[in-house]
């Protein structure tokens, strides 16, 4: 699973890496400990061009009665994403890239949990495979997102039994393409190579310090 991550990249670096066109209404605030229900930056494609977007983290499907479901849908299992009612439509037509500087996971050790910070070894941003949706209640419109997860690679298996789906830059066009075939999309929903990432144990005190935006 992925329940916490950071994004502290400079905006011009994100724009250069993801090749998106800026929007005047896009607001970006770096966050060292982004949690479900908070605003997450994402990249979407519209008419062949990429744009930045802000989504509430925790996907709220259109049929939801209220926003609380988002606390259960901040992750989507890649093995069933094309079947689950909450994610099926989004998987078909509302896919996005969710950038991160790092993500956090906790390894159980007896009664204690050791936090780890996971980053790309090459220093590039991590790119999660994401889905987004629009939910409306009266005049209120909420756009929200989820991060897809998969089985762990060799590195992550020692820490947790799930990990986020991490896309490479060569995957971006396929993932964002509204006409991409389902088979092509499913080929991307796999663990990344173990040597792509590093996992460093961090103290609880350091983690608390990193929680500030």
TrEMBL record:
Its EC number is 3.4.-.-. It is an enzyme of class 3 (hydrolase). GO terms for molecular function: lyase activity; peptidase activity; single-stranded DNA binding. The keyword Hydrolase applies. Transmembrane segments: none annotated. One of its GO terms (biological process) is proteolysis. Keywords: Covalent protein-DNA linkage, DNA damage, DNA-binding, Hydrolase, Lyase, Protease. InterPro entries: SRAP (IPR003738), SRAP-like (IPR036590). SUPFAM superfamilies: BB1717-like. Pfam families: SRAP. Belongs to the SOS response-associated peptidase family. PANTHER family: ABASIC SITE PROCESSING PROTEIN HMCES, DC12-RELATED. This is Abasic site processing protein. It comes from Jeotgalibacillus alimentarius.
